[in-house]
Amino acid sequence: MTTYIIRRILMTIPILIGISIISFGIMQFAPGEPTALDLDPQISPEDREEQLDAMGLNDPIPVQYVRWAGNILQGELGTSFITNRDVGSMIWERMPNTLVLMISSTIMTMVIAIPIGIISAMRQYSVRDYIFTFGSFVGVSIPNFWLGLMLIMFLSVQFGWFPVGGVSTLGGDFEILDRLHHLFLPALVLATADMAQMTRYTRTSMLEVKNQDYIRTARAKGFKERRVIYKHGLRNALMPLITMFGLLLPTFIGGSVIVEQIFTWPGIGQLFIDSTFQRDYPVIMALTMFGAGLVVIGNLIADILYAIADPRIEY
């Protein structure tokens, strides 16, 4: 397993290099430039060129890329064009908020979706199965931004049950309940689509295994139904769920870009949106590579979990 993990990590290096080249090229060819929003409109052409030289933006694109890649290899993410702050510090400041949102959404997805999927499969074609199936299709179909706006309008504005946005009450002391109160709606919106998909995957997997010979054998031995389902059935139905789990990490980052903007959640998703509008290239590249790294990590975790769930798998 250790050899496999090392081999997989080495295989990701050319992938990440390719992603960085493509992302850097797309960013450079995008309309506009970083100085368009930052420089004084009345600045003379000579001063403008001087500032572009100082930022290195007049160099050929390959030279800019090699300089950026060299800094990355030394652990330097660069300096923001807009705030003149270290990009690594800007990301680390917002990372805890995004991690809290991602972990909460993941827990919410697993805790709700897997039991619902099992119940739906064990009670196939029952009223509960139809209700859960209908709810899953609705959850997959609803866009995150629309669901977030509707929840804010009804639960926050109309009924006042939840805050409109932010991570805590302004000016208030740190309280766990206050943080959870602010966290619930963003985490729910971020988890909704994944919950729906996970429910469908769980139901389908359980339907495939519930009539297998080993399930009938377990029942014939007189095991309790709960033990048959969770020990013999669920474990063999985990493989598609592990694949789904490996894909959750990057989708949470992608979804957090929208959710954090709607709920004014100060995480890296909101930082990505602000940096994109301001054409802050160093921040955009750092966050793009962070997302690519999460995709790689998610797939690696899924492969490791395969071997844990099914001892027959060898790498």
From TrEMBL:
GO terms for biological process: transmembrane transport. It is found in: Cell membrane. It is a multi-pass membrane protein. InterPro entries: BPD_transp_1_N (IPR045621), MetI-like (IPR000515), MetI-like_sf (IPR035906). Residues 95-302 form the ABC transmembrane type-1 domain. The chain crosses the membrane at residues 9-30, 99-119, 131-159, 179-196, 237-263, 283-309. Keywords: Cell membrane, Membrane, Transmembrane, Transmembrane helix, Transport. Gene3D superfamilies: MetI-like (1.10.3720.10). It comes from the Bacteria. GO terms for cellular component: plasma membrane. It holds the Pfam family BPD_transp_1. The keyword Lyase does not apply. Belongs to the binding-protein-dependent transport system permease family. This is ABC transporter permease.
